[in-house]
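Allow me, if you will, to draw on your knowledge of protein folds for a short while. A protein sequence and the structure tokens that stand for its backbone fold form the material at issue. I would ask you to consider whether the tokens describe a fold that such a sequence might reasonably adopt. Thank you for your consideration; the sequence and its tokens are set out here:
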Amino acid sequence: MNITKSAVNKAEITMTVELTEMEMEKYYQMALEKLSKQVNVKGFRPGKVPKDVAESQLEPGYVRAHAIDMAVPPTSVDAIKQEGIEPVARPQIKVLADNPLKYEAIIPVYPEVKIKDYKKVTITKSQANVTEEEMDSEIKKFQTYHAVYQDVDRAAELGDRVEIDFDGFDETGVPLEGTNSKNHPLILGDNSLVPGFEEQLVGMKKSEEKEISVTFPKDYFHKPFQGKVVKFKVKVNRIEKRDLPGLDAEFIKKVTGKEMSEADFRKELKENLQKSKEMDVQNKLEGEFLDQILAKTEVELSHTLIDEEIAYMMEEQKDHLASKGINWDDYLSATKKTEKDFHDDNHQEAEKRLKVRFAIQELYKLEKIEVSDAEVEAAFQDEMKILASMNYEPKIEEQEMLKKRLTNKLKFEKLLGLFQK
């Protein structure tokens, strides 16, 4: 096996491998043996055709192609080991010649990472205190979910649930696509529609029609409507008064599934809100830290590695859509996108992910961040107790993955602590 290599850049090594015919003979025989089991020859049982008979029935080029497919993976692994290369992702392989077999492998390697003045990075963790107003707001959400509605014969008020018909037009009276609906339900004051729309429905009565004007926000998600003035013809079909349940034992049991006093309910709710708020504060802190580190990081990334990251992101998106019952091909059709569009749209995000990943790994080395087996085991046992309380026992491979995640989590927490005021 003849191997030559060269560093294309600081993130990739190109390796060319050429095999002799003697080395290829082993793979040719392996391919022939595999294909002989698929050949049907009169007088022989399926799968029992001798190799020499099968060879006479098969196109040599066809066998050769299979032999190449079987030769490249193991020989590329051997060549990488022989040359002492430590890849960070699967190599991208291109066959240059088939006789003798010669192929090129572009191998992503750990790049050179420079983080300028990273010791000047500082982050400050804000307090995560739950206020009484936040408590009342959360309780109001529960009450709203369990609210009872009844039809009323009066003008609409904030807090009422109404059903309306509406049609949108531009300032010249031309109908606008996507701005019409029939018997559309909404609760006045929840601001589920464009700002300024719901307030103009207050005071309207059942069967009343009205024309209103709304200016869409300048940062509206649909660009053609950003800052656009739209006129709506609105008709109220139904008005319902919303009655919120009281904070009594029956309501508390509906919400929690347990019998408890109002004081205990508030205590448990406050604890849950506290945990949620602390998580939000922590996520914000981590985001600020990563943004600062990212701005100071210089790293040349392998194109092969970027492509692999985008492929991983695509699989993430497919899984996410599948969890919602959406087929990937249907999604592409509905959004009028192709997989190439997905690749192009996510190229920058993939680079950012990789840049952050390498920067963090570099900081671990620079700051000598390590976690002991005992620390990981303690965190692991805590997680296992939580899973046990949910009547779930993870499989061995899931436990190993959990330990890896906890190792990364503990290391990152230690790193973050070095920069926190």
